[in-house]
Design brief:
heterodimer; A: 409 residues; alpha/beta; Aspartate Aminotransferase, domain 2; 2 domains; 7-stranded mixed beta sheet; 4-stranded antiparallel beta sheet; 15 strands; globular; B: 162 residues; alpha+beta; Sufe protein. Chain: A
């Protein structure tokens, strides 16, 4: 029997999550794709729409002022939760993908030119790869891709050799979505800073899982999504360095982001509004703030401890099955992700068989095709754990993998 | 009563997955086409030799799940020696089979392809089962060299339920 430690029981009550409560036999192991939502988040959004809803920043009436206040407060709460003292440099977006496109599209277009170099890593989600590739093509800049170690970590020596005087930006994931690798942000940014490159960090898989102090990171842009950290889909965040945000052009133009619109020229609103064109997504921002509140009450150190314990257990139990190969570094160097293959059973076939047992996993390239090429596998199965997962979920996963081995002989 | 996954992974499917038929390159093919399912990363190359409106040889290579591989294998065995029109007709009935719209009475006519009937209970897997057929359709009907399950190609048979 494998190790059983206290923290492999959930850190939250499953009853807090209406979808999980309604589906007691469901083993949801795809939180790296999107998390389930606690009632506190759903209630906060319902309350906003039933009590405070109006278009903020506009109406000359009390209700609109209340909506404005709720939006402002959500920004403040989220900023405090992730360790950002100056909330006006926290910009709401639709999610990580839009945050990163904003950086590549607005900062990148204005600051990267022909012959410049953009450095990304082979570990990136397409959202932190394709926008840079597109920018490089458009500007005739060079895209350099940092290699990986055999266990799926960024090769720091290779990164140091790639970063040079023409390097304008170094972009990397805080945590890999496909393998769960936790990257050493301080070491990576130190390499970029040798040449004063701008540092862009994709925090989509970090913000939900790790204690975060963004002000303490030596980075220029930090992006994440709300829906992977108990919040609603459609609301994410970009935190930027104030000087860069002020100097760069807007990403989209229109209502709310202007100061004065002349017939020929327009001046921009102050931060953060300069980067939030159109009616803001107040309801989802309120939901994300409630999610941060929920996680804050649990304590992110406890979240991390639980995930590490359950990921270690899952890794140990899976590795005991003949033919199973787990990708990436040791569980201590990973978030709650276990990326694996089972002999020559294709991950999609595995996912179909697990689905029948109520076990939801992701199978495929995980929006990280450059990484899959480097691992030399077409696809992997990925089980990802969060605060509501328990040892019972690991048991179901292991039983499902064993059943798949029986089916495929 | 078998479970849906038992109906999906029948012995014949597993056997064709393990030992796919006509799994080879064909240097003298008349048509070569790449088929891709970008959602899951499956890809295959299909080679077809056509003589006087008849498919005289067909082969494939590639990577993918058991369903896509077994389906490609069963397809090559089923269409060899068939005319273009017969192959297209087979595709149409096969597609009805995997989307659950082929009447029971007509299923007999599909021969070993019937083994893929279990796919109809897994709508997400219809594309896996159809990939090789879409590639064949393009090989027979167009000058395309690539076909994707996510792109509008030359008019495929109706995809209701896919």
């Amino acid at each position: 029997m494998s190790t059983r430690v206290e923290s492999t029981s959930a850190v939250v009550n499953r009853a807090d999550f209406p979808l999980l409560a309604a589906n007691p036999d469901l083993h949801y192991l795809d939180s790296a794709a999107t998390s389930q939502k606690p009632r506190a988040v759903l209630d906060a959004m319902m309350y906003y729409y039933t009590h405070d809803n109006a278009n903020p920043h506009r109406g000359a009436y009390a209700l609109s002022a209340r909506a404005t206040e709720r939006y402002h407060q959500a920004r403040e709460d989220i900023a405090r939760f992730i360790g950002v003292a100056d909330a006006s440099r926290l910009i709401f977006t639709r999610g990580t993908t839009e945050s990163l496109n904003l950086v590549a599209g607005a900062w990148g277009r204005a600051n990267v030119g022909a012959g410049d170099e953009i450095v990304v890593t082979g570990l990136e989600h397409h959202a932190n790869f394709v926008p840079w590739q597109q920018l490089a093509t458009e500007k005739r800049a060079a895209l350099r891709i940092c290699g990986l170690t055999a266990d799926g970590r960024i090769d720091l020596d290779h990164l140091a050799s790639l970063v040079g005087p023409r390097t304008k930006v170094v972009a990397f994931a805080h945590v890999s979505n496909a393998l769960g690798t936790i990257n050493p942000v301080a070491e990576l940014s130190a390499i970029a800073r040798r040449v004063s490159a701008v540092v862009v960090c994709d925090g989509a898989q970090a913000a939900p899982h790790l204690p975060l102090d963004v002000d303490a990171l030596d980075i220029d842009f930090y992006a994440f999504s709300g829906h992977k950290m108990l919040g609603p889909m459609g609301c994410g965040v970009l935190v930027g360095r104030r000087e860069l945000l002020e100097a760069m052009p807007p990403y989209q133009t229109g209502g709310d982001m202007i100061e004065y619109v002349g017939d020929e020229r327009t001046t921009w609103n102050v931060l953060p509004h300069k980067f939030e064109a159109g009616t803001p997504n107040v309801g989802d921002a309120v939901g994300l703030a409630a999610a941060c509140g929920y996680l804050g009450r649990l304590g992110m150190a406890n979240v991390r401890e639980h995930e590490q314990a359950i990921t270690a257990l899952a890794t140990e139990r899976l590795c005991a099955i003949p033919g199973v190969r787990v990708y990436g570094p040791t569980p201590a160097q990973r978030s709650g992700v276990v990326s694996f293959t089972v002999g020559d059973i294709h991950p999609h076939d595995l996912a179909t068989i697990l689905d029948e047992a109520g076990v939801c996993i992701r199978a495929g390239h995980h929006c990280a095709q450059p990484l899959m090429r480097r691992l030399e596998v077409p696809a992997t199965a990925r089980a990802s754990f969060y605060i509501y997962n328990t040892e019972a979920d690991v048991d179901a996963l292991v039983a499902g993998v064993e059943h798949a081995r029986d089916v495929f002989g | 009563m078998s479970s849906p996954s038992e109906a999906l992974y029948q012995e014949l499917i597993l056997e064709h997955n393990r030992k796919p038929r006509n799994f080879r390159e064909m240097p003298n093919a008349d048509r070569t086409i790449e088929g891709r399912n970008p959602l899951c990363g499956d890809s295959l190359t299909l080679w077809v030799k056509i003589d006087n409106e008849s498919i005289t040889d067909v082969s494939f290579k590639g990577q993918g799940c058991a369903i896509s591989k077994a389906s490609a294998s069963l397809m090559t065995a089923a269409v060899k020696g068939k005319s273009r029109a017969e192959a297209e007709d087979l595709f149409e009935r096969f597609h009805q089979l995997v989307t659950g719209t082929l009447p029971e009475s007509e299923q007999q006519s599909l021969g070993p392809l019937r083994a893929l009937g279990g796919v109809s209970r897994f709508p997400l897997r219809v594309k896996c089962a159809s990939l090789a057929w879409h590639a064949l359709h393009s090989a027979l009907e167009s000058n395309e060299t690539e076909v994707s399950t996510e792109r509008e190609g030359p008019e495929p048979p109706p995809l209701e339920g896919a």
